[in-house]
Amino acid sequence: MEKEIETTAFVMPRYGQGEQLLCEYDLCVDAVTKGRGSLLIHSAGKVYMLKEFHSSKEKAAALANVLEQLQQWDEKSETILATKEGEYLVKEEGGPSYLLKTYPGGKECDVKNPLEVMEGVRKLGELHATLREVRLEQREVFRAPEHSLSQEMYRHNRELRNLKNYIRKKKRKNSFEECYEEVFDSFYQQALLVEEKLKQTELVRKEYLCHGDYHYHNVTDCSRRSVILHYENMRLDSQMCDLAKYLRKVLEKNHWNNELGMDMIATYNRVCLLSEMDMRELMLRLSYPEKFWKIANHYNNNKKALASKRDGEKLRQIISQEPMRQQFLSRLYNGGQ
Question: What is the pTM of this model?
Fold first, then answer.
């Protein structure tokens, strides 16, 4: 649990408001501590998490139903608690909505430990296979058209161009902006190629429930019996969105280790069989220079004078890793050879 108890920049209930919201639950509160973007509620030897929820009360109720079904797969899966009135969201006066869920805690997956990384991808395969069998009555509340792969790539490419145009017009450029201009064409051509391939490739994508934000921070106890956390972004999509994100996040932390990446895909495939269409989509997702876009997006949306140093360091890091990334992609496109 040590990773969760820290100060955060996420939206938290105002002072005293969190405790007031808890009065709506049939819960005897012993203590309240700050978590990562949340409040941790200690009650009768158990820990619960009060966390902001960015969607509707209908989705909260549907999500509660799905998580209840997941209990049959893994009894340690989190569940959402209903209020005394049977609602799944509580709302701060004049502020956002929150949900209260069980919180198993645990040490997050060690991204530098291959055994834990493999356990994380095995667990994802199990989750995906289980989600395909879930009874889903309120299907439409999980639909998120803004996450359409082609729309997402188009939007990201436009944002890359916008930053390039902004920098081009500046007379005095900082070190980040000079570096961005220098490598822009190389990464942008990769991004355009993926966008074009998506237009030319007819991906027959099967929509299933997905975790929606699967990375190594959201899977714990990988050295024992792993547990998946934080399902708030669950949506209907191709399940390759989860696998691609987990792969990319892990490989970025491991300098795009080719063997590790191929072993991760093989491990997932043994649990949840990858079709030819799945592999085509996975390759396209991993071919997109996502980290380059994330750095550009962060720089564009923050105070540029403050973001310059941090984003510059990250940009130089992905430039240094690019040869290994291309080597991995080449191997993936050649069937792992």
Answer: 0.91
